Each structure stands twice: as structure tokens, then as C-alpha cells.
Amino acid sequence: MSLGPVGASLDPEQAENFEDMEKQFAVKAVQHMATYWAILEKMRGSRLRLTKMDDEIYEHFKRDFPEFDPRETIIEDEMKSKKGKERWRTFMMAYEKKVEDYNFGTMLRANPKFEYGEKETIFAMRMQFYAIEIARNREGLNDWIYDREHPGEDDKKT
Q1: Distances (CA, A) of 27 to 17, 51, 116
Q2: Cα–Cα dist 158/152, whole Å
Q3: What is the pLDDT of residues 20-48, one digit of tens each?
């Protein structure tokens, strides 16, 4: 949605709607975050599929971001730099007609070793979330979440 041409005045009644939209976005992003965490508590990430296209997304991500190490903390400034934005935009546009809400904002943990928290969470686009979390899940980096909730449980039961 556009605010209109640069220099145009903003209708105060419309501004209220933007605030409502921001609130709705925040609610949806938090719900997505909580739902994903609840799933990881019930199933090992290494056995989870986030989309029907996980394999394609994973291979594409590895090809376009070969330097990315899913074990490491994401450096948000690099991800959101001009170069980073261009790389991610190119990656994400491949899914414009394939993945619903591919460019919707969501929350992403900066490091797979930590829970969501104020300092551990960054704002990302849905396709960034999918690419990074699929990579983390493939490497078993989110399995600790399930293991913590199910101590002593045999690996074969999940």
C-alpha cells in the first residue's frame, strides 16, 4: 500500500488505518512465531517440512548463499545492507507465484541456539525465514527444542 506521491499530505483518517494494519501485522507475526515454536516442541526440526517445496528452497538457498552457515548468528546489518537486500530480493522473487505470503514479514531467531527473545530475534521476510529455518532443520540445529521438552525420549519415537 502506498502513502501517495512524495510531498503529498497524509489523510489522518488513513493514518489510523495504517496503525491498525501495523497492529494486525504484529499479531500475525507473533502468532507465526509462537506456532513454529510449538511445532518444534512437538516434533524434531530435522523431521519437519515447512513447505511442499522444502527441497527446492534448500537447494536454491545453498546455491545462492553458499557462505551461509546455519550454525552461526545472523549478522542483521549484513542481511539488511544494500547488497544483502538485493541478494535476498532476487532469491525471494523466484517464489512470488509459488509460495503464499512469500514476502510477508515474520520473526526469525538470529541464532539457532537460542529461543526467541528481544535480543535474539530479527524481523525477516517469510522466504528468508523458510530458507534459513529449512537449512537449520536439515542440520538438526533445532532438535534441541524438542529434546528439552521430551527428556530421555528415544530418538526413534518421533
Answers
A1: 15, 22, 15
A2: 12
A3: 666 777 788 888 899 999 999 999 999 99
